[in-house]
Amino acid sequence: MNDTNVTFTDKDIGKNLYRKKTYYTLVVEQEVLANNKDEADQMFIDNGGIDHSEINYKITEAKNGVETFYVDASYSDSAETEYVGKVAYEDDEYAKEDGMVEINTYADEVEIPGDVDTTLDMEIETERGR
């Protein structure tokens, strides 16, 4: 049986091969701008998470005879998507004309239906002088 990454020779006769599986908790916290919670959730599903191709032996510590045999990452749970704030103009008299925006964590969450083109709506409101 040679089902190991540990290098051994006849000088190692009598030594025991040990294997230990260690479980780690990895936390990934991501953010996205979206019109509403449903759209944000879908964007996280489609475009977020872990690049599983990067979960490999390179993330492990292996030295002084310790070798990595197996690496994997499994999904276990996630928290609810939470509202953080709204993109708004800064509190400055020239913010709108200078395009100075910030995330206002005190602004109320107002969900925009996912099928609404907010860019077009904003342009229309701007033309109307709003």
Describe what this molecule looks like in 3D.
The structure is a single chain. Helix content is 19%, strand content 6%. It folds into two domains: 1-82, no CATH class; 83-130, no CATH class. It contains three helices and two strands; from the N terminus they run H-E-H-E-H. It is of the alpha+beta class and 130 residues long. Strands 1-2 form a two-stranded antiparallel ribbon.
Please describe the topology of this protein.
Blueprint: H1 37-47, E1 86-89, H2 95-98, E2 101-104, H3 118-127
Antiparallel strand pairs: 1-2
SSE order in H/E notation?
HEHEH
Derived structural class: alpha+beta
* Rg, Cα atoms, Å: 26 Å
Count of spatially separate domains: 2
N/C terminus separation: 76 Å
Number of helices: 3
Percent of residues in β-strands: 5-15%
> pLDDT average, as an integer?
86
Q: What kind of oligomer do you see?
A: single chain
